[in-house]
Structures are given as C-alpha cells and as structure tokens.
Amino acid sequence: MTAIQTSGLARRFGDVVAVESLDLHVRDGEAYGFLGPNGAGKSTTINMLLGFTPPSSGSGTVLGYDIEDESLAIRQSIGVLPEDFGMYERLTARKHVQFAIDTKGATDDPDDLLSRVGLSDAADRKAGGFSTGMKQRVALAMALVGEPELLILDEPSSGIDPNGAREMRAIIQEELDRGATVFFSSHIMEQVEAICDRVGIMSGGRLVAEDSIDALKDQFDDESRLILTVDAVPDGIVSRLEPVDGVLDVRVDGTDIVTSVSNSRSKAVVINAVEDAGGVIADITAEDHSLDDLFAAFTTGDGATRGDARASRAEAALEEVDA
Ligand SMILES: Nc1ncnc2c1ncn2[C@@H]1O[C@H](COP(=O)(O)OP(=O)(O)OP(=O)(O)O)[C@@H](O)[C@H]1O
Q1: Mind listing the pLDDT tens digit for each residue in 20-79?
Q2: Partners of 184 in the beta sheet?
Q3: Using CA of residue 287, residue 292, residue 295, residue 297, what is the dihedral sign?
Q4: What angle do the packed helices 132-144 and 93-104 form, to 10 degrees?
Q5: I need a labelling partner for 157 at 20 to 30 A (CA). Which of 52, 193, 195, 238 fits?
Q6: Interval between CA 24 and ligand 1 midpoint (Å)
Q7: Distance from the CA of 41 to the center of ligand 1, in angstroms?
Q8: Domains annotated on the chain, with CATH
Q9: What digits encode the pLDDT tens for the residues 237-253?
Q10: For ligand 1, atom 10, which residue shows the shortest CA distance?
Q11: Which of 44, 45, 184, 202 best tests ligand 1's pocket when mutated (most atoms within 8 Å of CB)?
Q12: pTM recorded for the entire structure
C-alpha cells in the first residue's frame, strides 16, 4: 500500500495558490523528507492530509483513507507532530501524553514515552514553563502513542538543540526499524540526508522534484562548484558571469564569488572574467554539491533563470521516469 498518495491536490487562499496540482507518492515504510523554503506549501499540504484544511481541488489518501471523507480515521491511525502545537499550560507533560493515549484508546505507558524523548525529569512539571524544545519533545511523545503505522512530523527539530536533534533522529530511526513510515518536513539538510530514503522538494506550491537524494545529486554530476575568493567583489560581477556559456549559477557570499559550472572550460572563462572585471583572486576552491546546493537549485528563482532551469530539468527528469 502507498502510505500517502495525492492526485492534483490544490489549495488556494483567495489569490494565493498555496499548493498546486500536487501528486505525492509516499511508500510504505520509507522515510520521506518534505522540503521547501518558507511559504512553499508544506504545512498547507500536511493540513490537507490531516483533514484540517479542505482542498480546493484534487484528492488524496492516507493509509488508504480518503483525506476529505475519512480524516477522523486518518488522525486515529497516524502520529502527528503539527507545526504549531498548542499546549495546555496547566497540564503536566505526563498528562499531555496520557491525554493522547486516552484519545487513541492506546495502552502505552506515558513514562516510557517521556523517557524516549528525554523528558523523564520533567514528567510532573506543568507545560506552561517549558522551553520550545521541551514542548516539541512532549509533542513527539504524543505522536509516538500507539505505535502508529505512519508518522507525520512537521519540522520536528524546530526549537531543538543539536543534541536533541540527534536524539530525534535516533527516535525516527527506531520508528523506521519497527516498520513505520515517516513523512517529515524539515529545513535541516543534514537531518534529511541522514534519515531520508527519498525527498520531495516544494517550491511556490509545486513539487519540483521527488526522488532519492542520490538520484537528485546525480543530475548535478556533470557540474561542479567554483568558489573564487577575491579581495573585493567587482561591481556587476553576477550579471557579467551569468551569460557565460556553461555557467549555471552565480552568487556572491561576502568576498566569495560562488559559481556552478557545467564544464571545466567554463572555469577558465569565469576566472578570466573576474580578473578582467578588476577582481584580485586570493583563493580558488572547487567543491562537490551538497544537499543545500540541491535545495537551492530547485527552489531559488534569483540569479535569473537558474531556479527555473533547474526546475525544468527536474521536471524533465521526472517525466522520463514517468514515461
Ligand atoms: N490560512 C491561510 N490564509 C491565507 N494564506 C495562507 C494560509 N495558510 C497558508 N497560506 C499561504 O499559503 C502559502 C503556503 O504556506 P505554507 O504555510 O503551507 O508554507 P510552508 O512551506 O509550510 O512554509 P514554512 O516553511 O514557513 O512553514 C504561503 O503563501 C502562505 O502565506
């Protein structure tokens, strides 16, 4: 069975198209990273999957249940860590978890769950005094109630310190090991890279890529990144380099001119162009692409055509897969 499937799913808020013709396929037992910049439509998608926001058009199923007609069954069967989790200030951490257990008719021991998320010491404290990270841990404990087949986690690591993020990763891995499907949105690329089998990248309400991280990276195999550190960045260097044949992207980061080039011939042209523009090159670095680059490539529209070009490349690649 497909854990999550949507077809032409869309949601508009007035003139704003939050999600547009979304076809999502999350397989049983996989860890699926749902990525995208702020405002890309991730939370709106998750809210549609949970039945909190009705779609403007399109359809979808979660664990085989229809997202519009069977949302109650969906919420009973899955574990959710929502984006904005409101807590009852006067209830203790344990009471929160017990509430989730009772609601689901589950038999978990709340103390076991609080121990898993590292909150044993705070079990009897009222949530009103909790830090953001502690609230997030309570929310995760509540999501884990009843060993759900599917966990939907919206930014699970937000507000969590690096140790907490590592523990969160370990918990997600444990859940995967017992056979659960994990669908989570995140801005933390290391976390996504460490956990995910596949990622879907949203941009402007559309799914611009959906594949394994390795497969997406393969699309960049013929490309490399060239970083020129200069004493002072020459005026207008971005618009000067962008038209150079083989240059896929240019941006300036402090005194670094960061370019993606499709062949080594272009590197020499870039270096010459920077020097011709009066740049004194202090250092040259060539780098492989990281997941951050990949994310930027699929989601940024700045630097003129690059984001669009990448998006169309991604679409072309996906069409090939579909064909
Ligand atoms: N209730 C609403 N009313 C009006 N516009 C909305 C509403 N909810 C979302 N939007 C708009 O829809 C778009 C997508 O928002 P959404 O929250 O889904 O993005 P996101 O990818 O989850 O972003 P973030 O990473 O910042 O949480 C944005 O332009 C947002 O302003």
Answers
A1: 999 999 999 999 999 998 899 999 999 999 999 999 999 999 999 999 999 999 999 999
A2: 33, 153
A3: negative
A4: 30
A5: 52
A6: 18
A7: 6
A8: 2-212 (3.40.50.300), 218-322 (3.30.70.980)
A9: 999 999 998 898 999 99
A10: 18
A11: 44
A12: 0.75
